[in-house]
Amino acid sequence: MNKTAFVFPGQGAQYAGMGKEFYDNFKESKEIFQRANEALGFDIAKLCFEGPDADLSITKITQPALLTVCMAIYEVLKKNTKTESVIMGGLSLGEYSALTAANAMDFETAVKLVYNRGNYMQNAVPVGEGGMLALLGCSDEDAIAFCKNVTYRFGLLEPANFNCPGQIVVGGKSSAIENAIQETKEFNIKRAVKLQVSAPFHTSMLKPAGLKLKEDLNKIIFKKPSCDVISNVDSEYYISDTSISDKLERQVYNPVRWEACVRKMIADGVNTFVEIGPGKTLSSFIKKIDKNVKSINIENIANLEEFIQLSYI
Questions:
Q1: 202 belongs to the catalytic site
Q2: Second label for 187, Cα 20 to 30 Å away, from 22, 34, 197, 308?
Q3: Which residues pair with 98 in a beta bridge?
């Protein structure tokens, strides 16, 4: 059986102007932005549409901004297409969009939660003490061995994102990262690129942020998702509402296993992935994971209209 998966991007996909077309043309989208402004107590819509990029890239702003744009697009998609997503997923922050779209929590709860999440993640490690590297052209095994070697010699370095074949992100102490770049050739790594991020996300250095987030998560009464939603932590579906709090806490300081999530969805019959939100990052990863599946991204009205036509053929 052929299935469709709706997937949502994570931090890094944001840009000034995202979502404005939907806000200007669809009542459902405008309502989402208005609800976000009210829940947060500041004008997130203005930041999404006008930036500046420097403000939009602040983690505590990026996270609610992306979730708002994704949900503003999803609400229109839901109303205008007959496609019923069987499975949902998202990369890091995108998992919150997936859970919200699957009715595990209401939008206001989600947007306030990710604002807090961004704040905790931003402040967990002092500026300058941690960072991240993208390792290109290596296997998972080589990346893991590389991290162990660097940790032993120079300081903490851990896998953070298993995105797709040949692209693994690692994070850790700044001193370790500076030395790590010189060690890549010994571990069959073609290139290491230092990322412009404020903290080593999805590593054990973020555990204090996870523990703070847990306090917020424990106050929320989640519902069982209305469709299958896959978790970054273990690439398994949420089988009940009770597992949501635990997995979202652990996701903050454990690696994002995006490649494993995509392979699991494909194994379960997904042959079409619809990326909802700004950019084509997930579509790019999915093509590298399996070139035989279809991947579509919806970030503007032209994309939406194309998908609506396809879904009714």
A1: yes
A2: 197
A3: none
| Superfamily (CATH H level) for 3-124+205-311 | Malonyl-Coenzyme A Acyl Carrier Protein, domain 2 (3.40.366.10)
Please pick, among 29, 57, 97, 202, the residue that the annotation labels catalytic. Answer: 202
Question: Please, what is the Cα angle at 277 between 272 and 282, to 5 degrees?
Answer: 50
CB atoms within 10 A of CB 207: 15
Do the Cβ atoms of 168 and 187 come closer than 8 Å?
no
Reported pTM: 0.95
Cβ of 142: how many Cβ atoms within 10 Å?
17
* pLDDT tens, residue by residue, 131-190: 999 999 999 999 999 999 999 999 999 999 999 999 999 999 999 999 999 889 889 899
In this model, does residue 1 exceed pLDDT 70? no
Question: Distance between the two ends of the chain, CA-based, in angstroms?
Answer: 17
Q: State pLDDT tens for residues 58-99.
A: 999 999 999 999 999 999 999 888 776 789 999 999 999 999
For domain 130-197, the CATH superfamily is Malonyl-CoA ACP transacylase, ACP-binding (3.30.70.250)
Contact 171, 133 (CB under 8 A): yes
C-alpha span between 87 and 115 (Å, rounded): 25
Q: Are 134 and 193 in contact (CB under 8 A)?
A: yes
What single-letter DSSP state applies at residue 167? E
Asked if the peptide bond before residue 278 counts as cis, ω within 30 degrees of 0, the response is no
- Does the annotation count 283 as an active-site position? no
Do 3-124+205-311 and 130-197 come out as alike in CATH topology?
A: no
pLDDT at 39 over 70: yes
Q: How many whole angstroms separate alpha carbon 270 and alpha carbon 118?
A: 31
Q: Which of 29, 57, 92, 295 is the catalytic position?
A: 92
The type of residue at 124 is A
Name the token pair of 287: 């093509």
Question: Residue ranges of the alpha helices (H) in 124-270?
Answer: 140-154, 174-180, 207-217, 242-253, 258-267
- Hey, where are the domains in the chain? 3-124+205-311, 130-197
